[in-house]
Amino acid sequence: MTLQEQRADDRRLVADAVRELARQTRFPVAFGGLFEDGAARMTAFLGNHTNALEGLAVKIERGLGGRAMQELRPRMTGDYRSARQITHDYDRYILGEGIGTLLAAPIIVEGQPRGVLYGGTWGPWGVGDVSAAPAMRVADAVATELRVRAEVDRRVAALRDVTPHDTHSVSRAPEPLSASQREELRESYAELRRITADVADADIRGRLEELERKLASLSGLPEASAAVKKSDVKLSPREIDVLARVALGETNAEIGALLGLREATVKAYLSSAMAKLGASTRHAAVARSRKWGLLP
C-alpha cells in the first residue's frame, strides 16, 4: 500500500470517527485528524457553518488539542475565547467558525499521540464527563484500529523476509525453514488470528486473511501442500484460533485470556477440532492440522 493509499484509509477512519463522536456526544460541530507531516491535520468535518476550520493543523502543546495530545487526556473549555490554560495559535480557525465551547480528545497509540478529535458548539454548553467519556471511547476505537493496521503492516513486512523471493522457477520447492523461522511463522500466524477478531474494516480483514493463507503455506513441509488438497476437514475460524495457540504450547486458560473466551469454551472448541481431525490428543490435533496444511 502506498503512502497516499494509507492516508486515504486513515482519513476514512477519521471521518467515521467524527460522525460517531457527534452521534455519541451530540455536539453540533465535530472534526478531527491524524498526524501528517508533524501536525495533526484536520481532514474530517461535520456540522460546521463555514470553511474556517479547513487547513487547521495542530501541533503538540499548541491550542486545546495540542495540550490534550501533550497530556494524553481530554481537554475542555466552556469559553474558548477567554481560556487562559491554552495557547491561542488557532483562534482564526476556531473563532472563525464561531465556536465557544470546545472538547479535544487525543488519539493515543502505544502511549504516543497520533491525532485528535474535537467536539464543539457555538454557544455555552455544560461540558463534562458526560461528553468527555464517550469522546474518549471513540478516540480509543480509532487508536485500536490504527494499532491493528500497524501490526498487519509489520507482519506483512516480516512475511516478506521469510517468503522465497525466487520467482523465476515456480516449480522448484522452497527451501525448508529453520526451526526458529518456523516458530516465528507460527507465532505470527497465531497473533494474526487473534488480531482478526478485533478488525471491523473489511479491507483490512481481507488483507489479514490473505496473509494467514500465505503463512499457513510457508512451513516448508512438502506434504502439507499436497495433503491439504485431499483433506475434507473444515475447521471453524475459532477452532483454528484455538489450535494455533495450542501449537505454541499455551494452556487453555492462557488461550482463553488471549482470545477473550471462557476456559470451558476453549475446551469445547478444542474438542470439536480434535473430533473433526480424528485426533485423540491436542498435540495430535496440531500435528494433523500441520500435515494437512491447516496450520503452519
Automatic annotation (TrEMBL):
Q: Which Pfam families match?
A: GerE (PF00196)
Q: Which residues does the UniProt record annotate as the domain HTH luxR-type?
A: 228-293
Q: Which UniProt keywords apply?
A: DNA-binding, Transcription, Transcription regulation
Question: Has UniProt tagged this entry with the keyword Transit peptide?
Answer: no
Alphabetized GO MF terms: DNA binding
Organism's domain of life?
Answer: Bacteria
Q: Where is this region: Disordered?
A: 161-183
| A biological-process GO annotation | regulation of DNA-templated transcription
UniProt-listed PANTHER family = DNA-BINDING TRANSCRIPTIONAL ACTIVATOR DEVR_DOSR
Protein name per the record = Helix-turn-helix transcriptional regulator
State the organism named in the record.
Microbacterium album
Tell me the classification of the organism that encodes this protein: Bacteria, Bacillati, Actinomycetota, Actinomycetes, Micrococcales
